[in-house]
From TrEMBL:
<keyword id="KW-0479">Metal-binding</keyword>
<dbReference type="InterPro" id="IPR036637">
    <property type="entry name" value="Phosphohistidine_dom_sf"/>
</dbReference>
<dbReference type="Pfam" id="PF01326">
    <property type="entry name" value="PPDK_N"/>
</dbReference>
<keyword id="KW-0808">Transferase</keyword>
<dbReference type="Pfam" id="PF00391">
    <property type="entry name" value="PEP-utilizers"/>
</dbReference>
<feature type="active site" description="Proton donor">
    <location>
        <position position="852"/>
    </location>
</feature>
<feature type="domain" description="PEP-utilising enzyme C-terminal">
    <location>
        <begin position="536"/>
        <end position="887"/>
    </location>
</feature>
<keyword id="KW-0670">Pyruvate</keyword>
<dbReference type="InterPro" id="IPR008279">
    <property type="entry name" value="PEP-util_enz_mobile_dom"/>
</dbReference>
<protein>
    <recommendedName>
        <fullName>Pyruvate, phosphate dikinase</fullName>
        <ecNumber>2.7.9.1</ecNumber>
    </recommendedName>
</protein>
<keyword id="KW-0067">ATP-binding</keyword>
<dbReference type="GO" id="GO:0016301">
    <property type="term" value="F:kinase activity"/>
</dbReference>
<feature type="domain" description="PEP-utilising enzyme mobile">
    <location>
        <begin position="421"/>
        <end position="502"/>
    </location>
</feature>
<feature type="binding site">
    <location>
        <position position="633"/>
    </location>
    <ligand>
        <name>substrate</name>
    </ligand>
</feature>
<feature type="domain" description="Pyruvate phosphate dikinase AMP/ATP-binding">
    <location>
        <begin position="295"/>
        <end position="345"/>
    </location>
</feature>
<feature type="binding site">
    <location>
        <position position="765"/>
    </location>
    <ligand>
        <name>Mg(2+)</name>
    </ligand>
</feature>
<feature type="active site" description="Tele-phosphohistidine intermediate">
    <location>
        <position position="454"/>
    </location>
</feature>
Length: 892
């Protein structure tokens, strides 16, 4: 804790670039204040103060005095004191971290109210009912979030009071009723919290600040951060803001607005408004709102002012903004703004719209979208021509097509999804307690709440399909069912929801490919008159990415069909052709014969049988990829993968024996299976080791490649094969294989009279290979990092087992935020890649470098490979557009 550190900033002191320190909300409140927009005065306590608190268990020593000084200034400005008996200043205390965590952390409103000041507020507002309603809200929120009292106790008490009076909505309760409720609430607090509700306003404020700090580490906040990959040590800022009231009557209200439609990107008036209500009522989706456009007829002056402010904000932030506002007796106040979340499709559209408006340039447009969004747009959608049974319609809150069994609570959602069921979580509305159910579900369906309800905001953030506010649904959580216009849907019945149209169907609706995939496949043209806006936007963004990227993008593909698709998707070659995939099906028997061979003749015969088939494979592949490099990897997996399962075969042999039905071949097979059985096959006889111990295997493959290339050349083609040796650990292995390969190539060249210009390189997928990359580069013309095996061997994690055994525990304990098999472990595996790149290039400056592990199609990893200076990434055909986009974003 630094003595001169400043822990509190007035809203006039900050700006939007101070998100690390002031959190998103605080930084943007400051920005709006400085833009001259109507923001209620207040101040922000920094994330640094929170960090000190979380690390040491107590607030920084200087904090109290700093808060006092800022509170004094605020009181001066407002002309009233916090909790002052006759004319109280009230404040809200809200969390606000660097990254938005909707509904995850705590907020307390109306701080400063007490038995004394509640009467002051009544006089000041000229509304006794309002004052007592505000007081009961304070005790309820404070009781729940600061003192840890079970919130349902308050809700039940409120419900009882309404029933006793025979009314159904809160607004029918009068001042006298609310006074009684306050009394009751205070009793609940004393009983449950073991202390009285604090009457000292400063104590209320200090406790609320501490509670916000503490809320950083609640279970649901931790879960959300893991999901969203938000670091756990950032801490939250705390915003103390003078209260304005949206619940002072019909000329007051509160709302949420977007400067553009977060689902389509179109400009217009989008948002929800709720008359005579406080902010939390809208976000929680508790009461149904009216469309923002209706505000024009409710309060034209505020509406016009809001439209002007929205334009100011969009031009200033150069992006879609979302806004929370309150109108207090005809006076508009801005409570929050931020660059708003949006659907994947809207992100692409908005980025190109902003370019057209001259607000941003192309490199900036690339930063406004990402590969995860593009991947989402490539998901299939519902088949509109299919016969469907429409159940109802809600708001299209987060796009996608989701099919699953109906479940009505999060617990069941999690339980069923663990046992492999696809589920749709159906709720009246969701709240932060539903988070794990939402994660487990294929999609989320609610009967209440708008585009800004909890369900909608969180689902969009997770990229999950969501339909909300489907009012025809009567959700009965207790009886685990819902009724829609007379149709009863029980738990377990299949429903389909369309997050792009808001439609809800009974039963399973078939799905069709996305227009973006149709575009990449070449079946839809961006220039066509009927091409949809989304396809045009994707087309433009991809063009920007291709223009700036330095990394080339290749495909992992083993046959002509995949190769052609990869090419359509923009692949600039094949980075990995796994030849083992060519030895399956009916060819497996030939491999069997090769393995079983006792004599050189038998072995040669088997290889000779395989040669023409292999050659044909390569001819097709080189033709599909004509003019582009094709990296063919020689056989890699342990041989037992080509033999029958040991148990099955043993049973078969035993049965045959008992029938005295002697099968010589099965017996030999069984012996071979035993001979080849390994405890750790992934560390056993595989990769280059196979080539070194099975005479003729690799040379047969090299011959097939060389002859195929010669054939293509003679047919005026432009084949560009690269021969890749897997699982090399030392340069000596590579030297031996190369010598044999070079001899075969020379032979084929002599026989065909064609100059083949074949290159030979290696995979770097063992730590020793990475550590001796300088030596290995002597014998290799290229490296391709096999980050699957490299991750496996660097961590000592079996890539085939860990996900099922202990990764969940590791992820839960935060040992890593994401599996290292998914995103490259920069510090460990990545640092080996980096040093191998340097050592390899030091030996051979023109060494070609690529990666062909799964990481080649992972957005974060692509940025890393760009940064360490690889020449290309190679990934599955479907990930190619994502890799192109991310390579562009990395370079822009
Ligand atoms: C790798 O290990 O990263 C790789 C691409 O090879 P495979 O996945 O076939 O082992
Ligand atoms: Mg490998």
């Amino acid at each position: 804790e630094n003595k001169d550190q400043k822990f509190v900033y007035d809203f006039t002191e900050g700006n939007k670039d101070l998100k690390d320190l002031l959190g998103g909300k605080g930084a943007n409140l400051a920005e709006m204040t400085n833009l001259g927009l109507p923001v209620p005065p207040g101040f922000t306590i920094t994330t640094e103060a929170c960090k000190v608190y979380l690390e040491s268990g107590s607030e920084p020593a200087a904090l109290r005095d700093e808060v006092s000084a800022h509170l004094d200034a605020l009181e001066q400005q407002m002309g009233k004191k916090l909790g002052q008996a006759d004319n109280p200043l009230l404040v809200s205390v809200r969390s606000g971290a660097k990254f938005s965590m909707p509904g995850m952390m705590d907020t307390v409103l109306n701080i400063g109210l007490s038995d004394e000041s509640v009467t002051g507020l009544a006089t000041q507002a000229g509304d006794e009912r309002f004052a007592w309603d505000s007081y009961r809200r304070l005790i309820q929120m404070f009781g729940k979030t600061v003192l840890g009292v079970d919130g349902e106790l308050f809700e039940d008490a409120l419900e009882e009071a309404k029933q006793a009076k025979g009314v159904t909505v809160d607004t029918d309760l009068e001042a006298g009723d609310l006074k009684k409720i306050v009394k009751h609430f205070k009793k609940i607090v004393s009983r449950e919290a073991g202390r009285d509700f604090p009457q000292d306003p400063r104590e209320q404020m200090d406790l609320a600040i501490k509670a916000v700090f503490d809320s950083w580490n609640t279970d649901r906040a931790k879960l959300y951060r893991r999901q969203e990959r938000i670091p756990g040590d950032l801490g939250t800022a705390v915003n103390v803001c003078s209260m304005v009231f949206g619940n002072l009557g019909p000329d007051s209200g509160t709302g949420v607005a977007f400067t553009r439609d977060p689902a389509s990107g179109h400009q217009g008036v989008y948002g929800d408004y709720l008359q005579n209500a406080q902010g939390e009522d809208v976000v929680a989706g508790i009461r149904n709102t009216v469309p923002l456009a209706d505000l024009e007829s409710i309060d034209k002056k505020s509406y016009d002012q809001l439209m002007t402010i929205m334009e100011t904000l969009e031009t200033h932030y150069k992006d879609l903004c979302d806004i929370e506002f309150t109108i207090e007796r005809g006076q508009l106040w801005m409570l929050q703004t931020r660059v708003g979340k949006r659907t994947a499709g809207a992100a692409f559209r908005i980025a190109t719209q902003l370019v057209d408006q001259g607000l941003i340039d192309e490199p900036e447009a690339l930063q406004r979208v990402n590969g995860a969004q593009l991947a989402q747009l490539m998901f299939p959608r519902f088949d509109e021509s299919a016969k469907t049974e429409l159940l109802g319609r809600g708001i299209a809150a987060s796009p996608g097509a989701a099919v699953g069994k109906a479940v009505f609570d999060s617990y069941t959602a999690v339980k069923w999804s663990r046992s492999g069921e696809k589920v749709i979580l159906i709720r009246r509305e969701t709240n932060p307690d539903d988070l794990d159910g939402m994660i487990a579900a294929e999609g989320i369906l609610t009967s209440r709440g708008g585009k800004t309800s909890h369900a909608a905001v969180v689902a969009r953030g997770m990229g999950k399909t969501c339909v909300c506010g489907a009012e025809e649904l009567e959700v009965d959580t207790k009886r685990r069912r819902m009724t829609v216009n007379g149709t009863v849907i029980e738990e377990g019945d299949v429903v389909s929801i369309d997050g792009s149209t808001g439609k809800v169907y009974l039963g399973e609706v078939p799905v069709v490919p996305s227009p973006v995939v149709e575009y990449f496949e070449g079946r839809m043209h961006a220039g066509a008159d009927d091409a949809d806006e989304l396809v045009q936007a994707v087309h433009r963004i991809m063009a920007y990415a291709d223009r700036v990227r330095r990394l080339r993008v290749r495909a992992n593909a083993d046959n002509a069909e995949d190769a052609l698709r990869a090419r359509r998707f923009g692949a600039q070659g094949i980075g990995l052709c796994r030849t083992e995939h060519m030895f399956l099906g009916e060819r497996r028997e030939m491999v069997e014969r090769l393995i079983l061979a006792d004599t050189d003749e038998e072995r040669s015969a088997a290889l000779e049988q395989l040669l023409p088939l292999q050659k044909k494979d390569f001819v097709e592949l080189f033709e599909a990829m004509d003019g582009l490099p094709v990296t063919v990897r020689l056989l890699d997996p342990p041989l037992h993968e080509f033999l029958p399962d040991i148990t099955e075969l043993s049973v078969r042999v035993a049965l045959a024996e008992s029938r005295k039905d002697h099968n010589e071949n099965d017996l030999r097979l069984l012996q071979a299976v035993h001979r080849l059985h390994e405890q750790n096959p992934m560390l056993g006889l595989r990769g280059v080791r196979l080539g070194l111990v099975i005479p003729g295997l690799f040379t047969m493959q090299v011959r097939a490649i060389a002859e195929a290339a010669a054939e293509r050349k003679n047919a005026k083609g432009d084949p560009r094969p690269e021969i890749m040796i897997p699982l090399v650990g030392t340069v000596q292995e590579l030297e031996i294989v190369r010598e044999e390969a070079d001899a075969v190539i020379a032979e084929v060249e002599a026989a065909t009279g064609v100059d083949l210009k074949l290159t030979i390189g290696t995979m770097i997928e063992l730590p020793r290979a990475a550590l001796t990359a300088g030596q290995i580069a002597e014998a290799a013309q290229f490296f391709s990092f096999g980050t699957n095996d490299l991750t496996q061997t660097v961590w000592g994690f079996s890539r085939d087992d860990v996900e099922a055994s202990f990764f969940t525990a590791y992820l839960e304990k935060g040992i890593f935020g994401v599996s290292p098999f998914e995103t490259i472990d920069k510090d460990g595996v990545g640092s080996l890649v980096r040093s191998a790149v340097e050592a390899g290039r030091a030996t051979r400056p023109d060494l070609k470098l690529g990666v062909c592990g799964e990481h080649g199609g992972d957005p974060e990893s692509v940025h890393f490979f760009h940064e360490v200076g690889l020449d290309y990434v190679s990934c599955s055909p479907f990930r190619i557009p994502v890799a192109r986009l991310e390579a562009g974003r990395a370079a822009a």
